[in-house]
Write a structure and sequence with these properties.
- This protein has 6 helices and 9 strands; from the N terminus they run ββααβββαβαββαβα.
- With about 230 residues, the chain is an alpha+beta fold.
- The protein binds coenzyme A.
Length: about 230
């Protein structure tokens, strides 16, 4: 098992952690992807089966690359996903690794996306030793862009998302990037913001998974669990 699987990132003030997705996250994940406000800047709502398909792709990202989106766990409750993902799109800035986030609306505006993104950037630059991280969003998605700006990412350009039809208002995207050197020169530290990055889940009884994390080693088994 890749040792990074056990990585837990916490924001102590809000009792939130980033951890690997677990079977009990399925209902919240489906709920999130059926919410029109969450999907405002995505092409449509997802059916439960489509959500399971996305969970499987998240696990494949972990298995292939040793990183992927985490589950945002707020005092034991699934709040959304956030983390790093390999960009498999045919875009000028690929190959690249992107920062992504998506939360259930009742968890918005509490700083969770910003604090989690700071932890994910630290993980990407300091643990994975990546040179650059990117983030992108539909041009009109000001909430998402605000998070990118608050963590210090810089607007680079607009681009057309290759998977979205030319006639769609969602096609036009904006690209933000950050380099490792910029991360190290940022005017604040994660601990200034209450974000810590740790290795062990053993003492977190409220967030301890009910299934062993190593069970995710087999993607087919994951699919069975979530179906
Ligand atoms: C984008 C998202 C993850 C942000 O989560 P969040 O936890 O609410 O983010 P934070 O609380 O850390 O920060 C949100 C910021 O956006 C600001 N904001 C809220 N509404 C806004 C708006 N309409 N226009 C501009 N900024 C806005 C908030 O004020 C806050 O900034 P501030 O701290 O300077 O006040 C969440 O809204 C979401 O899941 N959206 C749907 C999915 C999505 O679009 N994901 C991104 C795809 S690229």
């Amino acid at each position: 098992m890749n040792e990074l699987y056990d990585r837990v990132v916490s924001h102590a003030a809000q009792g939130s952690v980033l951890r690997r997705l677990l079977p009990q996250d399925r209902a919240g994940f489906v709920e999130m992807n059926r919410d029109a406000s969450v999907r405002k800047y995505f092409p449509g709502l997802l059916t439960p089966d489509e959500s399971v398909g996305e969970i499987v792709r998240i696990e494949q990202n972990w298995q292939t690359h040793g990183f992927g989106p985490w589950s945002v766990d707020v005092r034991g409750e699934f709040a959304g996903i956030l983390g790093l993902k390999w960009v498999s799109l045919d875009v000028p800035f690929a190959p690249a690794v992107e920062l992504l986030y998506r939360l259930i609306p009742r968890f918005w505006d509490q700083g969770l996306a910003t604090e989690g993104s700071l932890a994910a950037l630290e993980f990407g630059f300091c643990e994975l030793r990546l040179d650059t991280l990117v983030a992108f969003a539909v041009e009109a998605n000001t909430r998402s862009r605000r998070v990118m700006e608050k963590v210090g990412m810089v607007y680079r350009s607009g681009f057309d998302h290759p998977s979205i039809p030319e006639t769609s208002p969602l096609r036009r995207h904006v690209l933000y990037t950050m380099k490792r050197a910029d991360w190290h020169q940022r005017p604040f530290t994660n601990s200034d913001r209450g974000v810590t990055i740790g290795r062990s889940m053993q003492n977190r009884s409220s967030t301890r998974p009910t299934a062993p994390v190593s069970s995710f080693d087999d993607v087919r088994q994951v699919q069975d669990w979530y179906s």
